[in-house]
Amino acid sequence: MNIRKFICAASAIFLPSFAPGLDIAEVPEKHGDILAEYCFECHDSLTGKGGIDLEDLSFRIDAVGTAETWQKVLNAMNSGEMPPEDEPQLSDDEKIALLQDLSGQLVVAREQLSDTGGTSTMRRLNRREYENTIEALLGVRIEAENLPDDANSGGFDTTGSALFFSADQFEQYLAIARDALDEAFLFGKKKPKPVRVELEPETSKNAFLTKTSGTIKANYDKAQNWRNSDGSKPPSHFGLLDEFDVKFRERLYNQQYEGYRKYLDDPRTKDAVLLQPFFNGTNTVTVKVPNNAPRGEFRLQVFAKVLKGAERSETYIEYGFPGARSGEIERLGCVHVPSPKGKAEPLTLPVTVSSDGPRDIILRHRQHNNRDAARGTFLQSQQKTGTGPSAKLAIDKVILTGPHFETWPPRAVSEVFFKGMWWTQADQDTYAREIIARFARRAFRVRQPSPAFIDRLHKLYLEETNAGKKFYEAIREPLAIVLASPGFLYLAEPVGEGSGKKEKKTNLSNAELAVRLSYLLWSAPPDQKLMTDAKSGKLAEKGVLRAHAGRLLDDRRSDEFISSLAHQWLHMERLDFFQFDFRSFPEFDDSMKEAARSEVFETIRHILKNRLPASDLLDADYVVVNNLLADYYGLGPVEGNHFRKIPVPEKTPRGGFLGMAAVHAMGSDGNHSSPVERGVWVMRYLLNDPPPPAPPNVPQLSRVRGKLLSPREELDAHMEEAQCAQCHRRIDPIGFGLQNFDPVGQWREVLHLKKTKGRRVVAKKEVTIDPAGQLPDGSTFEDFYGLRREVAKHGEAFTRGFAEALIEYGLGRPYGFSDENLRERMLKRANAADGSMRELLLAFIESESFRRKK
Amino acid sequence: MKSSTKLTKMKTPALSSSRRSFLRSGSALIALPFLESLGFRRFASAAAAPTPPKRFAFLGMGFGVTSETWYPDQKDTGADYTLPEGLAPLAKHRQDLTIIQNLANQFNNEAHWGSTFWLTGANRYAEPGQSFHNTVSVDQVAAEALGNDTRYSSVQLSYKGTDNSGHGPGLSLAWNRQGKPVSALNTPVAAFHRLFSDDTTPLEQRQADLLKQRSILDTVLEDAKTTRRGLTKTDKDKLDEYLQSIREIEERLAKEKEWLEVPKPLPDPAPVEPDKSLQGAEEIKVMYDLMAAAMQVDTTRVFTYRQPLDSFIRSLGATITAHNMSHYQPGNRMDVSQMRDLEQSKLFAHFIDRLKSIKEADGSSLFDHTTVALGSNIHSIHYLTNCPTIITGGGAGIQHGRHLVMPPKTPLCNLWLSLLKGSGIEADSHGDSSGQIRELFVS
After folding, report:
1. B102 has a chain A CB within 8 A of its CB
2. Rounded to whole angstroms, what are the CA distances from A776 to A694, A713, A728, B3?
3. In this model, does residue A89 exceed pLDDT 50?
4. For residue A133, is it within any domain?
5. Which residue of A has its CA nearest to B380?
6. What interface predicted TM-score (ipTM) does this complex get?
7. Domain boundary, last residue among A85, A114, A143
8. Domain spanning B55-197+266-440 has what CATH number?
9. pTM given for the model
């Protein structure tokens, strides 16, 4: 029905107003009168000003064109452009009601119209899956940095239609494959003997610092000699370039010399390196992996100790490869240094070293991972103490051993060169063909490579040997091509090759099902066990699929599933949008941020493993944390880097998403918490009631310019404009209910407002936080705990939202209205098992939709 | 396959052996004077100085500008307009600039996507059943016409990382005929090597490599045939993206074959390999220099550059993110936004300086034959109307030195169409264009 018909009909009989169903977005017809009254003068069928005819516009938003026109109506009204200033205006109530319905229905319409209803598109492996699949085949981890980052397209990186193939991508695949093969294949006859590097780091460190500080002092003395001279001779006479050089040398001395001096005078430096900030970064210990050592798994033993006066949070060592700038590292991990009563055991850190990758391993105390922060921390303390911060940790000795190989030759070599090394074979050319064919079969997972394809690959090998290449060099190219071919890169499920008769053709074959299952839970190809059951047909037997799903889920490789689903569902990339200020938040460095990120994943893992309900994420009497986070949350020391459940007392803010540092950090910009971001996040994911996206062309709120306002006052301004109010009156109160969390998720009672010009603070104000407010459904709360209680009542809606995300991720296409039944069946099965999130996932895996093509 | 017919049509290089031996006599790094390097292939036998070719550079800035201080007053149009604060560093070039207001892409509804549709004007939802659709960008249209005689038809530049600089999805500003993203060189170092360093492998080896690459493509096409069996229509379309990628590589290989024996010419002074750690303002400046140097020796005639913004403002001392800056209000965020405008204008002025300082064979400058557009799909904050747009350079015959204010919501694509036509490129329309902007050409 369009508006014209509505008006004719409405004058004759009363029309029941249809509640907009999920199937088709629909603008409630009650707004027809408003449009007729305020818009038709210019935008009816006759006049159609600006090409907009509202009279013929359908209320049902079932086509892209219709949605676009309604979107234009929404935009024009949102921006205040329509109705024009000199025309009669809608009342605020009318406007709010119309805008609210319109924006809400357009959200629904967008979801429905934006992708093919319930059809997944064949997809290529996304970047993660590609890296994992290479690892499963070759046993080495490569970083496919040059491939497009598929996690960037807005939806999930498993959505087939969004995974495009750019012009030079094929060559990137080929280049990466060559590198991966070179990395994987170590051919020596005998297992390489592990190297052992034992380092007393203070020897070279003290020598270096003595020399550096000596040079600084000598040059400073030259500068002073010139200063103290009668000025008749230029600085060059005293061994310096010019006056600038003099100033430069003086500055170096003033900033750095005392720090080095104090360090070298400290008796503790006679047998250890103290980890403390210097002007140019941190005093670190660097261990070099010998260049002639092959790639592989190394073990680093670190003999470290805690120095007097260290707080518990100051007893963590970070390690990694050198970063882009001095003072920065590519973090590999962060470990706690214990202070035992007796003799200290060394810390043992695993490090994977690649052939062409970095060979320096840096150890330092935990800190913000950027050069400016290192320098800033030093200067901040230098202003107080004159010398810089004191050390909290020291390293006595490090021992590096490796590489350690479990088997020799490495698994990848014996799997590819399955009859042994080529030099043991009489007919190498035939062996090459066997190797290529076998490798292609494994790489292609389900579909067999065609003989013609193998022929061509073998021909390439022959051409290379004819050109004088050695065996490996000649066979490397065909193998790399396999890894850049459609059969490897695409997860195809052709309809002609399904199991069963005609009507069943759309069911996945057992092998296809195995592939789909392992790419869902591991983002990697099936292992031997799963493939064996698939090939023997056992996978089709009752309970076998379920058993495999459970097995894959309990394997650590399912981290890939949990973290990718959660990261993309909850839009956790926001955590990386901002640099958290090291002055305001010294504790929230990269190690803490990573721990906070992991908390989200590890909590979900805990829930899945222990058959707990998804709604535990809304409120729980426990947290899942490691040692670093337990310190951060003030939950008492726990030992070990791994995540584990610990109970929390009732009246603490921790437990569930709303107590997590990561969630609050995402709702900030690195400096300030954002009630709007937090409110939107809660509505979108916890209440499963997404507000419409911020509309373009919304007017700036000019009234608040230049004033020092609390966030609440600032956002009250939203309420003055009808077009802002319709969303913000629902969003903002939730955000205010979370104001007790600072930008890094620590509890606070008072808000410190500052207005700065450059570094200078020009105005200051303190505001006591008032968290009281209400949810969009009208339920009210007095404080954060009340808010959490009210949010927790929406467990059902939350679980629905999670199920929809799971369906979308798992089927590789947007959630469509035809998935509603599937979602409800999943929920029903979960509810029958005490709400178990694991059961919800298993119900999805066992569903028709998951086992069917498309 | 289409490409194979295309291949046979390709010209073989008309290089005399003496010319070749001359070129190869020096080291690979010989710095050729401008005339030697430019167009000698086309005009080796002709005596007259060649007409300098038309060139394009499109510079995408990501998030929009500071509305209050970047735009001239809309009532203050024509030649005597007051140059606003944010554009002050461009004062010395004002006679060669056109600032044009009220252009917009009617379909863009994405407040954080300043570049995705900037040069295409596409409707994201134009294809029913797809959540993302794009069309060819204007630079690629220009490259089809201008790119045949140069080593590279077009060169895309961008920056490393996936920070939130307000560009939106894509790999560069460029989108090919199929509406798929064209990848970019993401660092000055990568750009330097693509544009100026020669492969040191012996010629015979490189010829053999080319043959091998063709046979690699034939091999994967063999597998693609098998994969295609049993696929549905949508799946086949998906696989066609792979095939398209192969096709484009074939075309490039054909071109590479043509250029195999021609060393990459170096301008004088020859550019040096940029520092790996360049970020922000320095990075943009070096990219500008590399673009100008590559135009000087005619390595390509069409550039796009998707500029970093997050690292740009950080290199200027800001501690907030670009997105945060874009939501400026009076105070720190607006200060940063204004500082960004100013530094952006300075860098842009530097680029214009470079283009003006490099002479063509006929005595005119590079600038006289180049069209440069700087802008974004985002006005400022979340506004998508009145996209910031500055045009400079003599390539399209625009009467510069003016501030033009068009009727509200004039299609941005009308500008792109005008630039194409003004540069002698045949096109009936581009994106959602409704015609040319006549005002550009008449004073």
Report:
1. no
2. 18, 20, 10, 59
3. yes
4. no
5. A697
6. 0.74
7. A114
8. 3.40.720.10
9. 0.80
